[in-house]
Amino acid sequence: MRHPDDELPEGTAKVKAVQAMFDAIAPRYDLLNRILTFGMDVGWRRRTVAALALPQGGLVLDLACGTGDFCRELQAGGLRAVGVDNSAGMLAAAKTTAPLVLADAMFLPVPSGAADGITCGFALRNVADLGAFFAECARVIRPGGRVGLLEVAEPRFKPAKVVHGLYFRKVVPVIGGLLSDRAAYRYLPASTAYLPEPDQMMAMLRAAGFPDAQRKLVGMGAAQLIVGTRE
Fold first, then answer.
1. How far apart are CA 137 and CA 210, in angstroms?
2. How many domains does the chain have?
3. pLDDT tens per residue across span 9-40
4. Domain contains 2
C-alpha cells in the first residue's frame, strides 16, 4: 500500500507530526470529510454506533474524536459520549456538547473498566503502537463492553481497487490541497502503510481481549468497520 516516495515518521516523531498536521487542518476537516467520502462517512458512523448495541445511557469514549462527529452520533443514539484527542486544534474546532479531553489515546486518564464502549474513526493508522492501543482499549472497557472502530480499507474487487487507489492517492491530495493542506492530504492516503494486513490486525485485537472481533467492509470496500466485545 505504501508509495515509494512516501517517507513516514515513526515513534515519537510520528506522534508529533500527526498532532501538528491535525492542528493545521482542523478548520476544514469536516468539510473535506464530507466531500472526499461523498457524505458516506456520516452513515458509516451511524452504522458503527448501532453495531455497538449498548444499552441507553452507556458511557462511550470516542478516541481521536477530532471535531466531534462520532460524539454527536453517540449522543443521538442515547449514549453518553466523551471525546478524547491529542490535537488541541481539533478540540478547539469541535462542534459537540460532549465533554472533551486533551489526551493521548495510548495513555487514557480513565480508570480500568470505567467505559461501556469505545469508538474511533479513521485513526488506527495514526497511533504510535497499534497493539498497545488495543490493549489500552481493553483496559478501560468493562467486561461485556464493546469497541467500534472505523478505518480506511481497499476494495476486494480488482477494478474497484484500481479506481479507489487512483482516487485515494491522486485525487484526494489535489482536493485537499485546494481546500486545506496538500501535504496533509498526501500523508493521509500514504499512512495506510502503517496498517497491518486485515487478518493480522484482527488477530491483534482478539489477543488484546476482544475474542469475537469481526471486520466488515463498508462503502463498497473503501472503509472497514471493526467491532468486538470485551471478554
1. 10
2. 1
3. 999 999 999 999 999 999 999 999 999 999 99
4. no
Evaluate whether residue 3 is within a structural domain.
no
Q: Which three cell numbers stand for residue 22?
A: 491535525
Query: Which structural domain, as residue segments, surrounds residue 205?
Result: 11-229
> Residue 1: inside a domain, yes or no?
no
Rounded to the nearest 5 percent, the helix, strand and coil shares of the chain are 50, 20, 30
CA distance 214 to 226: 6
Q: What is the CATH number of the domain that holds 190?
A: 3.40.50.150
C-alpha R_g of the chain: 17
Give residue-wise pLDDT tens across range 58-117: 999 999 999 999 999 999 999 999 999 999 999 999 999 999 999 999 999 999 999 999
> What's the predicted TM-score (pTM) here?
0.93
Residues in a beta bridge with 61: 82, 118
Phi-psi region for residue 49, left (φ > 0), alpha (ψ -120 to 50) or beta?
alpha
Please report whether residue 128 resides in a domain.
yes
